[in-house]
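Re: that chain you flagged

S.,

Sorry for the slow reply, it's been a week of failed gels. I finally had a moment to sit down with the sequence you sent. For the record, here it is as I used it:
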Amino acid sequence: MFAAMAASVNNPDHGFCRDCLTFQRSETRRCERCGSPRLARHPELYRLRLAHIDCDAFYAAVEKRDNPALKDRPLIIGGGKRGVVSTACYIARINGVRSAMPMFKALEACPEAVVIPPDMEKYARVGREVRAMMQALTPLVEPISIDEAFLDLAGTERLHGLPPAVVLARFALGVEKEIGITVSAGLSYCKFLAKVASDFRKPRGFSVIGEAEASGFLAEQPVTLIWGVGKAFAATLERDGVRMIGQLQRMERGDLMRRYGVMGDRLYHLSRGEDDRRVHPDQDAKSVSAETTFDTDVASLDELVSVLRALSEKVSGRLKKSGIAGRTVVLKLKTQDFK
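Prediction finished late last night. Pasting the structure tokens below so you have them in one place:
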């Protein structure tokens, strides 16, 4: 079967179907075999090798998988009056719910939402299942979080008998079938743009950003698209009159570094789509933590000590289980005047 499909693989303009993986012989709007509109087409489709995979609304997706009654309901993973939203399904997001939003604001935006406290052990278990499927594609898998990772698929064509783009689409279908959740994938020539691409058209997204289009594409995007430009630094750039990446592209590297130091060098290169970071598998964890949020203020030392002891034991257990020796201990206590 692959020999027949290989005859069309050299024409990326025709692309392939993301649902049945059939290579297309013409530029039809729907798959010539199954009629699906989910066609992948791009001039560089079969030359790109670096991917970023991100599970769609991961915690919520796992809960909906395990409880079909939640399928069409707005779902928030979080809890407590002072808690925050860990994840919201896409139905809840349409109503204005966002990750890290305080629960009371989330319920104001979507009062009909179902709220479930997070089950991190279950999510970690499912995350490991997805990771194992990634590692079956390539040994070069760099986890970023429990539900996302970079993959370098260079050199895997002979192993899979298919171009990386098709392998990536087949992986997404496999996750849906075998694990019961969905993922979005981004394909590009560097990590920065692969991550950017995976955020497009979620859920079940599959987006491609090629090298030839990178500069023009980036020029039209806000500076907040660049990795490392958060609210505070975006405000600094705003004060300097810089809002769009295209403005950064017209600035000299030296000028950017004089203004913003090391971050200026990053702005110079990423604004031009230049990112030489490689995919490094088995990244070591930088920290292990545990925390809790009280529904009401707690001022009793005895009560706080007992909670601290329980959190310490949880961190200790995780360290022992992972075989990690820590060097620095940080205690974070948030109060009304916390800064």
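What I noticed first: The chain has three domains: 1-35, 42-209, 214-271.

Talk soon,
D.
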